[in-house]
Design goal:
Protein name: Ejaculatory bulb-specific protein 3-like protein
InterPro entries: A10/PebIII (IPR005055), OS_D_A10/PebIII_sf (IPR036682)
Shape: globular
Structural class: mainly alpha
Mean pLDDT: 94
Low-confidence stretches: none
Radius of gyration: 11 Å
Pfam family, one: OS-D
Amino acid sequence: LGEVFTTNCAKCNKKQGQDTRAALRKLRERKPQLFLEIFEKYDAGSKHLDGFLIWLKKK
């Protein structure tokens, strides 16, 4: 997850990117506090949060 959060799934193939985006969107919608806790665990200081949220909103 750390690499997904910091690189916006740059090494993922198309299917992996779609599945990862869908799963993390659902987590963020249903359990926003848990999403932020997990993000903070893998990206201390949430330095990549803004860019990741932009990536997450893409179709």
